[in-house]
């Protein structure tokens, strides 16, 4: 077992960070010695901290926050993260719940959030702004330079004593959950949780030893999440050219949309070449997938040609020409997106885990991954008025892609599996967290007596041991007829059948039938992150193919465009044909006037859908679906397909 500070010291002279800066990139040495300046502040400014147990809350993820994070580890402190998109009230909740002594903010804008709730933070002793000059002077408000000056000239002995007293099972980091289904919870991770997980995952995926070669990665997420936000990401990727890259599903989806938009403007010859290359790429990579990542003898000549003419150029345009491993996680991703990148020879491997498991628990690798659909046999049982033999039906399942197999040293069990083998996924291993801060009941609910962590996710294993996520217990829709329906497969199916759709949310809990809220793809304001009324170029191109002249969301929302409405209904009809029962058919739907977003409150920081929030925001539209007097032939309330 190892402490994080020991790891930092061991690798301090070997690990380098690369950060874009004015005039190019400059190297930053992540050495433990460079972090000792911050914990020295603990000795010089005792008025700021309470004993050795002081906590810092940050609101960003550039290099400036890494230094206080490592400094805090050295002096037994805890670093806590807050999303930059959080409201003042959300900031207050995390800071108060964690009893934070110091708040480190990025700029004046973030500072104002804290000042609004400062009087409700009894433990707060200092605020530090690390970017831009301070615009005001207040007691215990410091610039980053002023804060570091507090610790200059302090002896190392008190710090060394604190470092020596630390234990591997001691809490090292505090990560708050995104609060998708309730109040955020503070996840306590130990030194051993973090160092063991980092070592295990790096060995499992084949990351190069830093003594032999330097891996290049791009950190663009808020570090308060174990998995970030968009921004000028592709520009950064092209500059850094990472060797490994992790993106939440929405990042890959946005890339896909942009590439389709650019492709739609290409010449006929280029489009035909792209279609041919993608077909070759998909077939070749599917074949590799079936053989465990191995090539069947000689690489097809068509693939070699497609790689030279298309794939290399695509990778270079994305900044992924050196990238050997691309990953996705933190939320469900559609097979359409995975297969899109697979066809371009950019396999995106799914990983699965949670904050409570120190990040990843299972992961797909080039040697072991599953994406494509497989036909399955299902047995449908009916209870007619008179006895009838069971019918065996052949249906094509819309199974999610696999999130791979467990990291060595981790174990998985399925709790109370059903007839199809789907049960609650439970984790066991050294990566399982210590518990929730100040939440004994919630901790007891999450961890059983043998140390198994209940994830709240439903999943199953296939015959080869691959793990598939089939739903989330709290998201299960139980209709008035008692049918259990996981919403994500239906939502993904609609998004795949209707490319115009950006977000979808299935409705039907305790209802007589299913309905769905839909949004369409629109432009996003780069400054605020708010969805705008203008459709994306891809969406406009789709409308033109359908025969619609719409260019704005307001022109297609609420059934205003009959052509678009008919196309959406046709796509939903196709989805309904694959439903295994009438109860799983989507009978009513509506296109909303605005896409879901973080700023609007419908999406969390990792772009997960906040279902309770959406249900509350669109109560009127949902209730209209189920009014007895509602006319089934109104534009967005079509009759159920026959």
From TrEMBL:
Q: Which terms in the GO cellular component ontology are assigned?
A: endoplasmic reticulum; membrane
Would I find Nucleotidyltransferase among this entry's keywords?
Answer: no
Q: Which Gene3D superfamilies match?
A: N-terminal domain of ligase-like
Annotated catalysed reactions: (9Z,12Z)-octadecadienoate + ATP + CoA = (9Z,12Z)-octadecadienoyl-CoA + AMP + diphosphate; hexadecanoate + ATP + CoA = hexadecanoyl-CoA + AMP + diphosphate; a long-chain fatty acid + ATP + CoA = a long-chain fatty acyl-CoA + AMP + diphosphate; (5Z,8Z,11Z,14Z)-eicosatetraenoate + ATP + CoA = (5Z,8Z,11Z,14Z)-eicosatetraenoyl-CoA + AMP + diphosphate
Start and end residues of each AMP-dependent synthetase/ligase domain:
70-235
Q: Which UniProt keywords apply?
A: ATP-binding, Cytoplasm, Fatty acid metabolism, Ligase, Lipid metabolism, Nucleotide-binding
Assigned EC number: 6.2.1.15, 6.2.1.3
EC class name: ligase
Any one GO molecular function term: arachidonate-CoA ligase activity
Q: Is this entry keyworded Lipid metabolism?
A: yes
Q: What is its main location?
A: cytoplasm
Name of the protein in its database record? Long-chain-fatty-acid--CoA ligase ACSBG2
